[in-house]
Design goal:
This protein is an alpha+beta fold. Helix content is 23%, strand content 39%. It has 5 helices and 8 strands; from the N terminus they run βαββαββαββααβ.
Length: 197
Amino acid sequence: MALHFAFNRIQTDGPNFRPMYDAIVGSEREKLGDAGIWGAFYGLFGLASNEMILVTTGDITNMDDRLCLVDPVQTAESIYLEPTVRPDDYDPRTREGLYVFRFFDVRNSDVNQIAQLSKTAWETFEVSDEYRAIPQALFCEQDRSSEFGKMLLCTWYDGLNSWQVSRTPAPEARANFRARGQLTLNTKPYATRLIGG
């Protein structure tokens, strides 16, 4: 069964994201229909205080339009994704810590190779004693009919120090990440935390 995800960057006109989150998980939840929530995240770096990231699952058709029906969401930008090597289910994220979302601009013909390089790199990357990091997802766009597209990597860290130390992983992982980087045209990260109740 194919898994469907949407990365939704949403914004309100108030000073912070919290009213949007409360509405989405509470009184306005029915406006998302049958879509599930994989995770809701607020920004540490790269997002305004009145923005948040919502990753939805399952029935994600026209998710940007549906989110704009939620009061007080003002704008919503959605990218429709499918997983490559992770995840293999819709289980929501629950672990506290740092979640870094990193977009890659890629040639769609390179998606499978990038996914395999990542999977191989993770065999040593996520077992290090020097830091704590677990890749959560590596997505590609659902529509890969054009020459260029995006991939999205989401990695959990127990904190910013682990993120910093992990910039110099084991040599085996580093070699695969370097090869992946040669297939990547551009990257853009967002540092976030999971929103709790």
